[in-house]
Amino acid sequence: MSKLSPISLNELIKRLRLFGFEGPYGSGKHLYMLRGDLRLTVPNPHKREIGVDLLMRILRQAEITREEWVERNKYK
User: Fold this and answer.
1) For residue 12, with 0-12 CB atoms within 10 Å meaning exposed, 13-18 middle and 19 or more buried, which class applies?
2) 50-66, pLDDT tens digit by residue?
3) How far apart are CA 59 and CA 71, in angstroms?
4) What is the pTM of this model?
5) 43 or 61, which is more confident?
6) pLDDT digits 0-9 by tens, 4-38
7) Are 7 and 49 in contact (CB under 8 A)?
8) Beta-sheet strand order (sheet of 30-35)
9) How far apart are CA 76 and CA 58, in angstroms?
10) Of 6, 21, 23, 75, whose CB is crowded by the most CB atoms within 10 A?
């Protein structure tokens, strides 16, 4: 299994766009991104990097597997 590492908010948004997500859009306390009927909440942990645990929860909500994430972003 490939190892994930912490990621910045801007990098997360850029990579999610590679999976067809649009946005981010503002609403309340958090930003969100859309892909079809799926609405994905994008956290901003006080301008720090997003840790691996939170990244895995985001990927699960986005219906993206770890393998898809690593493969799609291998050369980024």
Assistant:
1) buried
2) 999 999 999 999 999 99
3) 14
4) 0.86
5) 61
6) 889 999 999 999 999 999 999 987 788 899 999 99
7) yes
8) 22-27, 30-35, 38-42
9) 19
10) 21
CA angle at 71 for the pair 36 and 24, rounded to the nearest 5°: 35
Helix (H, G, I), strand (E, B) or coil at 45: coil
Please choose, from the candidates 7, 26, 19, 25, the residue with its C-alpha nearest in 3D space to the C-alpha of residue 69. Answer: 19
Residue ranges of the alpha helices (H) in the chain? 9-18, 52-61, 66-72
What domains does the chain contain, in order, with CATH numbers? 9-72 (3.30.920.30)
CB atoms within 10 A of CB 71: 11
